[in-house]
């Protein structure tokens, strides 16, 4: 399934596509919300791994504006809960992710992204 | 003892396209369970399984570590397998994020130095080289390993060092014909990765190994 935590780790890997290939842009998506167990230690530990701007932009694309545009210096519980929701509870079920550079389309179907490339697209 | 994750929702129809858990799966689960304490101590945040098939291995790791304490990513080149992995996650009420992908390709460069637990039970059976290539994405691709059974494994081995975090570990299933000592030697010489055989057993005609690699 595609959640924003995973989306934040994906880049286009088509042949010769090596710059401006992250983050992938969502298109025509359907989302579902599913509750996940809140683990503040996990969220806190994952913070340094995130590309923050990419996350904020993706969340906005999905209509969620609960997160600040810069990572706050003071990490409080409310922030961690909002981040938990954005990272783990929004599931992209259908649609596509598109490379901002080469426009390659990675379809999402039944909650699963297809990241495979055709023979001639493999770098 | 931890129970094997529930995969009773998968049918013989599913196993026409997706590898059914077998001895090689179970030796891997046993090796992971044996290391349960060691794995919890390392406080892993990102687990990545390559070739997740039915999804039972990632589900098992989730039961060792606790579902909410790590992100479980699972790739498979076979889209039926990605679906089975997702269904197995739901059946066991855990979260796995499956992707249909070639090895770890879409995670480059974001997962460089980030993977805390990397797992691969590869297609390891020696076959004519073509079979490993043409079988990719089908049930044949789940076992056909080409020359020495290493055609697919070798591609991943070249990426392990880049993927693993400093405290990361990599578990690989192999059989005797893959030449386990040669794999270990190569990983040390080319990538400075230490390794040990954590479990081995004979199952029918196969002599199975689980090798664990790390950067220590």
Blueprint of the fold:
The complex is a heterodimer of chains A (123) and B (216).
Chain A: H1 4-7, E1 25-33, H2 40-46, H3 52-61, H4 77-88, E2 90-98, E3 105-109, E4 112-113
Antiparallel strand pairs in A: 1-2, 2-3, 3-4
Chain B: H1 23-34, H2 36-41, E1 46-50, H3 56-65, E2 71-76, H4 79-91, E3 97-100, E4 115-120, H5 129-134, H6 151-163, E5 164-175, H7 180-191, E6 194-203, E7 206-214
Parallel strand pairs in B: 1-2, 1-4, 2-3, 4-5
Antiparallel strand pairs in B: 5-7, 6-7
Report on the architecture of this protein.
The complex is a heterodimer of chains A (123) and B (216). With 123 residues, chain A is of the alpha+beta class. Chain A has a single domain, classed as N-terminal domain of TfIIb (Single Sheet), CATH 2.20.25.10. Chain A is 27% helix and 20% strand. Chain A contains four helices and four strands. A four-stranded antiparallel sheet of chain A has the order 1-2-3-4, covered by helices on one side. Chain A is globular. Chain B has 216 residues and is of the alpha/beta class. In chain B, 33% of the residues lie in helices and 24% in strands. Chain B is built from seven helices and seven strands, in the order ααβαβαββααβαββ. Chain B has a seven-stranded mixed sheet with strand order 3-2-1-4-5-7-6, with helices on both faces. In chain B, β1 (46-50), α3 and β2 (71-76) form a beta-alpha-beta unit. The two termini of chain B are 28 Å apart. The A-B interface holds A 1-3, 5-6, 8-13, 22, 36-39, 41-42, 45-46, 49, 51, 88, 106, 110-117, 122 and B 43, 45-46, 67-71, 73, 75, 77, 79, 82-83, 86, 95, 97-102, 105-111, 114, 137.
